Amino acid sequence: MVVTDAGEARGYRPSATMPFVAEFRRQASRRRTQLALGFMVLLPLIILIAFQFDSGGDDDNGRNEFASLVELATSGGLNFTLFSIFVSASFLLVVVVALFCGDTVASEASWGSLRYLLAIPVPRARLLTVKLVVALAYSALALLLLAGTALLAGTLRYGWSPLRSTVAAELEPTEGLLRLLAVLGYLAVVLLVVAGLAFLLSVITDAALGAVGGAVLLWILSSILDQITALGALRDFLPTHFSTAWLGLLSTPVQTDDVVRGCISAISYATLFWGLAFWRFTRKDITS
Amino acid sequence: MTSPSPAAWFRRALPTRRRAIAAAVVVVLLAAAVTWAVWPQGPGVRTESAMLTVRSGPSGDQPVNLDTTLYLPDDASSGRKVPAVLLAHGFGGTKESVRSDAEEFAGRGYAVLTWTARGFGRSGGEIHLDNPDYEVRDAERLLDWLAARPEVRTDAAGDPKVGVVGGSYGGGLALLLAAQDRRVDAIVPMITWNDLSRAFLPESTGGAPTEGVFKKGWAGLFFGGGGNVGSGPAGLSGATAAQPQGAPASAGPPSPGPGAGPGTGPGGAPAGAADPSCGRFAADVCAAYLRIATTGRADQAAVDLLRRSSPAGVLDRIKAPTLLVQGEADTLFPLGEADANARGIAATGTPVRVAWFTGGHDGGSGPRSDSDRVKFLTVQWLDHYVKGEGDAPGDDFTWSRIAGFDALDRGLVATGFRRADYPGLTGNARREVTVAGPAQPIANPPNGNPAAISSIPFAGGLASLLDGVAGDVPGQHAQFESTPLTEAVDVAGAPTVSLRAASPTGEAVLFVKLYDVDPDGAATLPNGLVAPIRLTGLPQQVQDARPVTVTLPGIVRRVEAGHRLRLVVATSDQAYTTPAAPTVYTVAADGAVSLPTVSGEPIPTAATIWRWVLAGLLAAIVIGLVVVVALVRRRHRRQDRSVHPEYADTPLAVRALRKEYADGFVAVSNVDFEVHPGQVVGLLGPNGAGKTTTLRVLMGLTQPTAGEIYVFGRRLVPGSPVLSRIGALVEGPGFLPHLSGLDNLKAYWRATGRPWEDAQFDAALEIAGLGDSVHRRIKNYSHGMRQRLAIAQAMLGLPELLVLDEPTDGLDPPQIAEMRRVLQRYATDGRAVLVSSHLLAEVEQTCTHAVVVNKGRIVASGPVEEIVGESPSVLFDVTDPVAARAVLDRLHGVRVLPESDGQLVVDTNGTARSEVVAELVRAGIGVDRVVPRRRLEDAFLALVGENSRGSGDR
């Protein structure tokens, strides 16, 4: 075997280890990835079919101004997409993002393949970076698949109509599409908290289920605490406090205050969690 | 390790202690945050409640009991005097209605006197509607009382440093008191009136109150609120309508109009009130109300009575700097009332500042940003003019506009604006919008029923903002509509419009409203405000009618581009008294609606700051990333790339390796060995001897506590590139269960990023010997198959050093034999193999060299033969073991090792075996067999001792 001067085997370069494409394919081959992405496509279709059973009943879906999202869901493709996002944002997307980001390192640890990757050697920081970027890419893909399918199916079924809501004037389809993209963008930013938390847990524990479940549980805990108004200003520090601020993007004029604060909160938390994850992983003894 | 040294204890305690410190820091931070959130703000406040008897009335000799509470800052005393605030409540309230505001002011260093106005709650007397002889004189006596308090700062003897604050009824009192008593240093009247007769009998073409249209909805509520016999303002108490401000009123002190609505007082019963039709109202007030409510018209006497309770006539006597706060969502006292007050007070040169907010009698305290602004302005005003702190507040005008719903708490969101000068209700620019439509006949319903709905008192601004309550009755209204606006108009002020009307009776009562109609056709009546007009001397035909100019109530609204304006003229309105006789009027609108606009700059809100924070955060993250990456690169460049000359050609050299775990357990205490090319080295030791830990350090999975590892002379640390020359199987196989064996190998090689052709898959697969099973998924593999695949993976790329941990685990005997051959073959061409095992036979048969470890230390190392050759023991098979033992014990230096089954294992310790045999035979003991113990097992046992417990049990 020919050896280069730096002491490594021929053809080995730390920056060439664990290519993004390889990791992407590695994750794509997993059944949970396929199922999660498949469900993102399936969900809007299920909702669409469910709406076909609409008996025209007049039951009240809630009293707040945004309950109208439900009633308006069938008024056009954009509204249908908005509804699909609305119903999945609070839990489904959280679980999916936690799955992609929480499972990625912990599952390698539980299979025992993590130590072989590190013995290649893939530099630890590089391993985490690749894992994180690919997990985030899959999370984004899930979000886009959900919105894309809903938009396509909704438009085919209900037509290309303006975006309606009772809080704001009707938005022209192009303007509505922009708002929808802004909503998706904000949701993606908010979900970074879940991504950060799940990833940190993924690095700390060897149990993939623990990382995913832990992230979802903490998210739910934060949501519950957010319901307790007695906490006052402390609620602003909860990672979920601004998770519904995207509704403000639908009003006219657009309310960005809470969106901006939500971005600050989410990015801070995500940076903190990722920073801890890298700090921990580059120092820890791999015993799995 | 039973008695740890202090140093070891300290080392062990260190990580836990560090963890404890971190945990303590987190706990302290959390506790601090919670404390900060729940700690009552400001210094402590003490209260003194008292029933004061003051003398008032026209001649100042009628005693009346007033229920008072004085709020004092804890540190106020005769030595440390504080300025005072007289805090008045709204109509129907009591001193309790303003308690939170009082506590807030007291917390800011004011002595705050609250009292229940006469005619309400537990106070005595009758309601005179802020009459200068009664309520206002009561307040004067309270000023006397304040001046006598030792804690209260004074300007002169009997003249306290005092500001008067109040909303609605309390605001009216503030204005009237400031006009009557020069001792008042500053006033903050909120959502209050200028002319009570005009407020209850408005006429929007400029007519006198005697011509006004009676605002029966509000008047009834107030009369009911103050009039119920015996129970004080119980007319509406308990009903939800009795809480007009709702929750928002208590949100931000000093919320405008605290307790402005009736019916919140306790039912302390003054005994005297006997007239069931008047309740606690003074007889003259009651009589005036009854007259107006009966006819819907006010006579001059009633107007005079109301005027006496109005600041309108005495504004020129107000010298106290005045902050006027008025609500936009207020159908009772619209913006015009504050406008009139502002002009009247400013005319004499008294400092006046005006602020509009989006709440009011209909809208409560408005959104958070509004109540915060009002609070800030109030405190700033009092601090400067009463306490004497801070710069002069100036006289710039601030106002706000509803911008939409808050997505988070579902409340309203307002945008604040400011402008240097107060433009009044006429704006600083105007915009004409033409409304068109034919002259339309409209019917006046008999007795005003059915009536259009514009606003419902206390229904709140929300209802009128949504399509909510506003509704017109078909046939009873005419509408004139504009074309869609080409650009948005920011209306701020009172729009005007010109109308013509005809009536068969010569008279008409009409209600003029301006709707904002969105492209969908949904019409919104801003804040439910309408302009009632009473026209007289009208012709029969509309073409003969002369145009009249109607001034609509002041509004603040942005009419978006694409929206239309709709002018509606209705004959009825539920909130007003209309003529009882049915009539048909004809109305026509001429030309344009003139919209006043005000330009101002938005008040920077926290949102702007947050945007900068976000930008700063992103920048900080980017800079932080760049710095971290640069530091890592730098450290990487500085990495020790030197080659240890001694070990340059040695595949592996381990030097003084030590690994101590966080809990203090020493897995490897001192390990030294080398692996040279061509060698198959066996790392032999009982379970827990430290073999696996050594290999973990060798693979860069674990940081050693001390010592070095050199691979081809290069120092090995976690992630060293030289690791790429080592192939490993450590702690069992690790594969992706959902992939086939072959795919796993490919995925692994892909992760190395090395050239495909270097992998030598065929050679590796041949070693694995899995046949077609390589295409099956790993999850269906047996243990042995995985083990073989793992060895194949370790051999991918034919690394120069192969490290295998228990490689024969799970293999059957033929496979073990095959594996031996493979390993021996592998250690050619300069390659080397390191095998760890606890199976002695395996090492003896496979390895050229052995390293024996026990309890984290090397006990022997060298060529297998050498280690085995050192074995000094001999196995004797004798006829009489007991006798033999006795014989051997006599021999000097010879030691019998415990062994069962009648065999003796003897450590000859240098004594020749022949001599030992001769000695036994001489003693008459038959020797069946003498076997030199050449097996490694002996060596192993001899080296590690007989204790079969692993070092892991230490």
UniProtKB/TrEMBL annotation, chain A:
Keywords: Membrane, Transmembrane, Transmembrane helix. The keyword Transmembrane helix applies. The chain crosses the membrane at residues 35-53, 82-106, 127-156, 176-200, 207-225, 259-279. Signal peptide: none annotated. GO terms for cellular component: plasma membrane. GO terms for molecular function: ABC-type transporter activity. It comes from the Bacteria. Pfam families: ABC2_membrane_2. This is ABC-2 type transport system permease protein.
UniProtKB/TrEMBL annotation, chain B:
GO terms for molecular function: ATP binding; ATP hydrolysis activity; dipeptidyl-peptidase activity. Belongs to the ABC transporter superfamily. Residues 652-880 form the ABC transporter domain. Residues 234-274 are annotated as: Disordered. This is ABC-2 type transport system ATP-binding protein. Residues 260-270 have a biased composition (Gly residues). Residues 236-250 have a biased composition (Low complexity). It holds the Pfam family ABC_tran. The keyword rRNA-binding does not apply. The chain crosses the membrane at residues 20-39, 609-632. InterPro entries: AAA+_ATPase, AB_hydrolase_fold, ABC_transporter-like_ATP-bd, ABC_transporter-like_CS, Galactose-bd-like_sf, P-loop_NTPase, Xaa-Pro-like_dom, Xaa-Pro_dipept_C. Keywords: ATP-binding, Hydrolase, Membrane, Nucleotide-binding, Transmembrane, Transmembrane helix, Transport.
